[in-house]
Amino acid sequence: MQSAKNVEILERALMREKAARKAAEAILEQKSLELYNVSEELRQDLILLHHQM
């Protein structure tokens, strides 16, 4: 029965790892979008500054 318990422990660890990876990917997606939006705002501000000169 030790083998079955080891399999169960490993399966739970794998499920935790998959959940953690999914959460990390969601955070990455969110932060990437935020960075893109800020970059676009800065690009627009730079264009406006150049037109004011």
Briefly summarize what is shown.
The protein has 53 residues and is mainly α. The chain contains one helix and no strands.
What does this structure look like?
This protein is mainly alpha-helical and 53 residues long. The chain is built from one helix and no strands. The model has no long low-confidence stretch (mean pLDDT 96).
Q: How do the helices and strands line up, and which of them pair or pack?
A:
Blueprint: H1 2-52
Percent helix: over 70%
Rounded mean pLDDT score: 96
Low-confidence stretches: none
* Largest sheet data: none
User: What pattern of helices and strands is seen along the backbone?
Assistant: H
| Overall outline | rod-shaped
Oligomer: single chain
Tell how many strands the DSSP assignment holds: 0
Structural class: mainly alpha
- The CA-CA distance between the termini, in Å, is 78 Å
User: How many DSSP H or I helices?
Assistant: 1
Rg on CA atoms, Å = 23 Å
Proportion of beta-strand residues: under 5%
Summary keywords:
rod-shaped, 1 helix, 53 residues, mainly alpha, single chain, 0% strand, 96% helix
